[in-house]
Write a structure and sequence with these properties.
Blueprint: H1 7-15, E1 21-22, H2 33-37, H3 41-48, H4 61-71, E2 78-81, H5 83-95, E3 101-106, H6 111-118, E4 122-129, E5 135-136, H7 138-144, E6 149-155, H8 167-180, E7 183-187, E8 211-216, E9 229-232, H9 235-248, H10 254-265, H11 267-290, E10 296-298, E11 306-311, H12 317-328, E12 330-331, E13 333-334, E14 343-347, H13 352-370
Helix pairs in contact: 4-10, 5-6, 5-9, 11-13, 12-13
Bound molecules: pyridoxal-5'-phosphate.
The site of pyridoxal-5'-phosphate has 14 residues, from helix 5.
């Protein structure tokens, strides 16, 4: 069977440590361990006293309860995983068989798409419409869903364009799924990264019975290095994914589970820190776009530390991204990694000096091609 590599992650793993400026990561400037612990000697003492044995495979009881609270669920609905990446992978492998039909949202983070193709499924996409402020095209969703659709995957808030679905858009997705009996996978890793409001995007949990919600500490909490994520699902689906989790990873680390408890208890502090980076970063980026004399344009994202910037050059997004890497030592995501050309995904939730220097380097390279 043919294999579809995860093009975005391959691009990042090959090059993210060999450029001066990495604007291809999808979160904020990460939180340091001391900052997470709040420079509290008692918290440091507790960390140093941890026995490094196998942790509870599905997550500590305390952690499962904290995650349940984040989604308005019950701890029995929670399975702790190695990042949202594992949560998505074991959800797809639990639900999707060869010949099944799967629907995803595009532009999007193409993990579920690739996993479904690699499981032998047929995959169709419904668009977020660039001419309508990246709102979902619900008529297209209606027309692409079939009686044999097994799974509809959404990312809310969205990566790469930051769209937050309204309650009525979510209700429409659920209604389409219900009509054909499909599962919904709601990847909610960007909850808490809202740029225009302090209100956390509601979780879809409770909105449908065939639902898996996925979350993570990597984005709103600024802790990707902990490699800690989770899924929230009905008990039978928790069982099915847990059996796959035992094969794939057994568990995430004891240290990560302990630090995740600290992070979820420090939620307001971490979200405030990261939203400040996102708001300042987007202001800088949008000024940079405005100063480009029409070379660049962007639809203002509602959330995430990302901007999906359109460029006006006769080059593919892979060519532009490669030129930026080799000539400007800047790594960005290429539009083709998300299913749409003529765009670059640029992370802006970073330290101001670093971001400004990286954006000037991008401008220098793009000007040479414009000439
Ligand atoms: C939508 C989405 N889901 C999942 C992931 C994977 O996240 P994690 O670091 O928690 O594995 C990412 C990472 O970029 C993402 O953007």
């Amino acid at each position: 069977m043919s294999f579809t590599p995860f093009a975005l992650e391959e691009w990042q793993s090959r090059y993210e440590h060999s450029v001066a400026y990495n604007l291809a990561d999808s979160g904020c400037h990460p939180v340091a361990l001391g900052e997470l612990l709040g420079d509290d000697p008692e918290a440091v003492r507790r960390l140093l006293a941890i026995d490094l044995h196998y942790p509870p495979v599905g997550g500590t009881d305390r952690l499962r309860a904290l995650i349940a609270e984040w989604h308005g669920a019950d701890p029995a609905n929670v399975l702790v995983t190695v990042g949202a990446a594992e949560a998505n992978a074991i959800t797809v492998s639990s639900l999707v068989s060869p010949g099944d039909h799967v629907v995803v949202m595009e532009p999007g983070y193409r993990q579920v798409r690739g996993l479904a193709l690699n499981a032998g499924a047929e995959v169709d996409a419904f668009p977020l419409d660039p001419d309508n402020g990246w709102r979902p095209d619900l008529a297209a969703l209606e027309s692409v869903v079939r009686p044999d659709t097994k799974l509809i995957a959404i990312t809310n808030p969205n990566n790469p364009v930051g769209t937050i679905l309204t309650p009525s858009e979510l209700a429409a997705v659920v209604a389409v799924a219900e009509r054909v009996g499909a599962w919904v996978l709601a990847d909610e890793v960007y909850r808490g990264t809202e740029r225009l409001t302090d209100e956390i995007t509601p979780s879809l949990w409770g909105g449908y019975d065939k639902l898996v919600c996925v979350g993570s500490l990597s984005k709103a909490f600024g802790l990707p290095g902990l490699r800690l994520g989770w899924l929230v699902a009905p008990p039978a689906m928790v069982e099915a994914t847990w059996r796959r989790h035992e094969y794939a990873t057994i568990a995430t680390s004891m240290l990560s589970m302990h630090l995740a408890e600290v992070a979820l208890r420090s939620r307001d502090r971490l979200l405030t820190r990261n939203r400040a980076l996102i708001r300042d970063g987007y202001d800088r980026l949008s000024k940079w776009v405005a100063d480009s004399n029409g070379l660049l344009s962007v639809v203002a994202p509602q959330s995430t530390a990302l901007a999906f910037v359109r460029y006006d050059l006769p080059m593919t997004s892979a060519e532009v991204a490669d030129a930026l890497r080799t000539e400007g030592s800047v790594l960005v995501g290429a539009g083709e990694h998300f299913g749409i050309e003529s765009h670059l995904r640029i992370t802006h939730g970073l330290e101001p000096g670093y971001l400004d220097a990286a954006l000037s380097s991008i401008t220098k390279v793009l000007r040479t091609y414009q000439a």
